[in-house]
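name: query_chain
kind: protein
chains: 1
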Amino acid sequence: GLCQRQLTTKDYQNSVKKLDRNKIYDMEKLVQFLVYSGYARSYTVEKPGEFSLRGHILDIFTLNNSQPYRLDFFDNVLDQIKVFDVETQRSFASLETIEIAPMNELFYTDQMKQEAISKITSFFSKMTLSEREQEKLNRDLESIEMRTKLDGLSIYMPFFNEEETTLLDFSTNKKVYMIDVHKMRINEQAIDSDLKTYATTMNGDHFLKIPFRVLLEKQLKYTHIEIDNFGLNSPIDATDLGVSTVNNYQGNLALMYMDLRDIPKNYQIMFCVSSSHYYNELATFLSDKKMEYSSSLTDSPGFYLVNQSSHGSFFSKNDRLLIIDESQLFSYRIRPAIKYRSVLNQSTKIRRIEDLTVGDFVVHYDYGIGQYVGLKTMELSGDKRDYLHIIYANEEVLYVPMDQIDMVLKYSSHDGMHPKLSKLGGKQWTKTKASVRMRIKDLSDRLIALYAQRQQSVGFAFNKDNEMQAAFERDFIYETTRDQEKAIIETKHDMESERPMDRLICGDVGFGKTEVALRAAFKAVLNQKQVLYLVPTTVLARQHYYTFKERFDKYGANVALLSRFVTPKKQKETLEKLKKGYVDVVIGTHRLLSGDVKFKDLGLLIIDEEQRFGVEHKERIREIRVNVDTLTLSATPIPRTLQMSMMGLKDLTMIETPPRNRYPVQTYVVERQEALVKEAITRELARGGQVF
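structure:
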């Protein structure tokens, strides 16, 4: 960011518009300002960067506000400014003035846009671009024209401002602090390397000729104070501030106690805890350890426990001071709580359609398995029609009219083996269908009997939540959504009932289904019951294992992993502990369906992505213990499961509230490019996400 070129300081000074109540504004110019500032017009505002105009009402969702503004005009007079809730559309606060800032670093008027496009076109007209470079240029010019995807067009900043303006030019009276210059230089080298890789991917380096960055060495010539956290680049005469970081204890107060014993007695040690429950927990711990503390700050050495937050935790030798904030004492990660809201009305579901290609194996409902060899046009009774040309055993041929294509399905095999072609007119296919019908009927009868037995059976009624359950739930670093709360309440209510729970939690990826499962599992463990968590893949099993370990270890619960990647010796140990009741939660794949898996007292079964398992696999576990509470999690439940929910055989909870500002999933099918893969992974890791 220090080397990134920007618009002129004057552009930024004029970019913020202040709106005051009871003043006169030209609505047309106000809308034009919003468009120039990168805001998109929509019917209703759902996320930052949108505005909506309906008659005399102007809604604006700015980047720096958690809720949108509603401006009510009487003619050209701004009569009211209110803050409203996106979900309910109800106003809950009134304001006298607001400020509107641009959405991106790049913003421009129509005149600036035309001048920039002319300069960009002229710049590249002297070069011979590769096909990929030309495609990128055309896309970018269209985005500049339409003011879309501006956050990815900063490379064109020099065409909007010919001066080399950077962040350091935005203040004349400033002190510049540069932290870890050594790391900044390493980052500069990494950027150069990435740009070279990008040039290789684009089959040309013409975009690298745009001077969109200023050299780091030029920026380092400014008078500045360097702060080197690791002593990697410090000169001999550098000043040692005597300040260091503090361990992140993650709720392990015993470890903190051991560290404190190494602190000299002439130090001030301050615990800053703003949450009342954590404050009481730490106060109890200090009292149990006979550590005298004061709640009023003085200059004297000793322990201080204050009911307020600090700006951070640090250890200062020069000041003989140690400050430990609540985030270092109890939180697993230092992350602000993330709020959520519903934006489902803008979500777009992506469906993948497999077209038949020559050589595909297909299944006709009446004639069985054949091989598709193409589309054939034939004339019968004077009419030309298209037919699917399918061959069967002994080179026999079947022509299926296009209006009967619903009778044909594409054959798929998990092991990739080619199937045996059916014989037209033979009895084998008829026998196969009859056999399948009998198996389905048999399975249906078993399912009906099983669910009837579950309805009549008496299960284990779990106890109401206690303080430890509340403490476990406080460890969740996000703010639960409305739908999450509903799912948690309904799941706990089912568990506290004597009727065995059979609930389906349905919600998209990232909507919080796992947290519901975590709380249900912990409730089971507190009631001395074992939990079986069944997942479809080893990767998912390992991911959930680490999640459960991180949350459960603090409370002494034993979590185990069982999959094909676990050594036979470790598997044997886990199975033995399961049988004796020494394992509270076991997470695994199909390995958990083996006959050697025995539980001492199984109380909760959790099935993740149930559509990835066969019906017999799932029902086999349920048949083992009819009175086991069952929680099913799925983003895309199969029709059978949904039908069971609609019939009342299963209870259904929908989680439809996504994270705030969450955009619909976008799927790209592109040619393999190392630079593109690297960029995608880097972006995901930079935002704190995960990559598989």
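note: Residues 332-354 have pLDDT under 50 and may be disordered.
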